[in-house]
Amino acid sequence: MSFDIVIHNGLIITVNSDFDIIENGVVCITKGKLERIEARVDDKPLPEAEQIIDANGGIIMPGLINTHTHLPMTLFRGLADDLPLALWLNEFIFPCEAKYLTPETVRMGTLLACAEMILSGTTTCCDGYFFEDDVASAVYKSGIRGVLGQGVIDFPAPGVPDPSNNIKNAVGFVEKWQGVSPLITPSIFCHSPYTCSEETLKKAKAASDSKALFFQIHAAETKSEYIRIQTEQHTTPVNYLDRIGILDENTLIVHGIWLDDDDIEIIAKRRSKVSHNPQSNMKLASGIAPVPSLLNAGVTVGLGTDGCASNNDLDLFREMDTAAKLHKVNLLDPTVMDARTVLKMATIDGAKAIGLDKDIGSIQAGKQADVIIVDTEKPHLVPMYNPVSHLIYTAQGSDVRDVIVAGRILVRDRNLLTIDLEDTLKKMAATSNIIKRA
Fold first, then answer.
1. pLDDT at position 427
2. Is the bond preceding residue 383 a cis peptide, omega within 30 degrees?
3. Domain 2-62+363-416 classified CATH 2.30.40.10?
């Protein structure tokens, strides 16, 4: 049998249920799927394939999964740093979105975000923003996999000047993109329980459920949000969302910082998922999410970067390193959030968090061929005693050499094949100059 792609001469970290690690591994890909994963017997010839990729002793692993992004916000990277969240949003981000977001700038910002993610080993993202139709067009062009949510908010928003049309607009986006490509999964994203009324939240969730969609919402992100919901609803943000029927197995809670034990119990009972965004949470001083407690309660937690305006990058290798270290120092316990746990959060648990674990998140026969190769022939990666630990504490996004999504090669030897990066950078520079002069 001849395969489309055969990858060999690498250490395979499968992240399967047994967390198998295969030395001198061979990965065979055909028709966009993983067909065979095995160790190579030295005297056995490689299987025939249209393309043979020599991993050169590097690490072959599942592509990383970013469970929370606002892709077009590359437009505002570094625009308003070192500010409190409310001031940052209300005085800078919301006004800039109103003034500078257009279908064209959204597509450009999204392409730049996709280039950054792909080159740093992310093969799937979960996004929520406005002009999501244009986001989807750019994501589709890039070749990355995406769960993409049209934003819903009870204020005039980019592309939705009349808030009474927010649900209708989101449903229209879903109907346009549902079934268009196996790489694009449409979703609905409600901004938060304080920017969306109870009626809006219920209608958005009902629309999501009627089409069997994944539902996303920022929740329990800041102390001020917690106090506001307590004042208005006389309960916690999570309990409020549960009380009005928002939380179930198809709900992704983004941030989930201000949680008490009862909140964690509710999330676990409803089988809702959580996206942990440690760098953004730290930069905006929102707090530290109780991720070890969530994991101990059996909650699925994935990793996210958030948008570039609050991180300021989309490199999940940096996010993994931060996630591991933040909770160790917070709990004064070096054993929590060990390397294997964090790697799972960025791969198979990230896939579970966005409902795609049957297709991606691990190197297993029958799954989609979303694979990356990490070049370990770098000074900072030598010697390597524990490859999993190395991925969390030592590796960088720039160490990713090759990227494959659904059997399509997006990056070969650090060369991005699906996006005209030079043109994208040139357009972004021109737009940022306009924003800078405003």
1. 95
2. yes
3. yes
